[in-house]
Amino acid sequence: MPRTLIITNDFPPRAGGIESFVHELALRRADSVVVYCSSPTRRDDAADPGFDLRQPFPIVRDAARVLLPTPRVAARARAIVGLEHCDSVLYGAAAPLGLLAAGLRGRVRRQVALTHGHETGWSGLPGAREALRRVGETTDAVTYLGDYTRRRLARALSAPAAARMRHLPPGVDTDRFHPGAGGTEIRARHGLGGRPVVVCVSRLVPRKGQDTLLRAWPRVLADVPDAALLIVGDGPYADRLRAAARDTESVVFTGPVPADELPAHHDAADVFAMPCRTRRGGLDVEGLGMVYLEASATGVPVVAGDSGGAPDAVLDGETGLVVDGSRPGPTARALIGLLRDPDRAAQMGARGREWVSRDWTWDRAARTLDELLTAP
Predict the structure, then answer these.
(1) Which pLDDT score, from 0 to 100, does residue 215 have?
(2) Domain ranges of the chain
(3) Residue 60: per-residue pLDDT
(4) Residue 144: enclosing H or E segment and its boundaries?
(5) Alpha-carbon distance 255 to 275, whole Å?
(6) Cα dist. 21→142, 173, 209, 362, 365 in Å?
(7) pTM above 0.90, yes or no
């Protein structure tokens, strides 16, 4: 049976939205994929040392921590294509690994490049924009997450490549993310009891807006004195965020948590909040925000920042609220409104669960990918 080679830097046990996206797509083609990816960090290995062995498809790990479109990586990709009888290639992220496509033309029948948020940054940079254009010209399709990313990417691609773009957003496993997924245990673990709880699940980096949450938090406490903020995740911004929250006992940092505990952390929330913001003149932007969809699937209303494609993951006023993530005031007002009106919050959570269950399924994403990889 012909196989698809997935070439990616973003793959578990490394944690992240792109990693989950690529892994879920691989699982739905488990009998016909081979994954070629970079090596995990020591921290990732420690978190799940047996990950590769449990997968229902072969994984080829490169020794490098980051794969780049070098002659060595290109040669290894060609070797895997031949040994595994691959007739198609899926690039887990178009930038930069989609640049390998030129060297694989004629060796495989179809090549598809996924895009996320960082490719929109590439689309605005001289040099990177031209590289993205080459990816579009040497692959058979470039995917996009939503209207925002489509518009940004289309400006960088040639007209024929832009015409071949296809909508391929992620899905959510609503069997994993559901109301009652274990939030009571998470609340007990952190001594939160029945307090109103705001949860943020994300990498701790400036774009995600945890600092905006911390700046908004005194205003929230003034109106909801018993509220608690649970910040879930890890990243290079961790020390600065912990320092900023040092004077309050209502903020809890969990550090990194296992992937199988993420639904429970969402379920611990009365409100999910990640007030992301665009940085560096549009180069650092949110592509979509799977965490909003996962929170909605868990029946939790969301407060989202207005960065890039994040509003595509929220029905503003129905499943949550979209705010200016660069300022604490709008975030504080949104959180106070939802925490003080639990009936409205519950209605938004229920609407979010309904919306995600209908329109954001992995089966739909897998069908789209199958069409792209098998097209004549």
Answers:
(1) 97
(2) 3-171+361-374, 183-359
(3) 97
(4) strand 141-144
(5) 19
(6) 15, 11, 22, 9, 10
(7) no
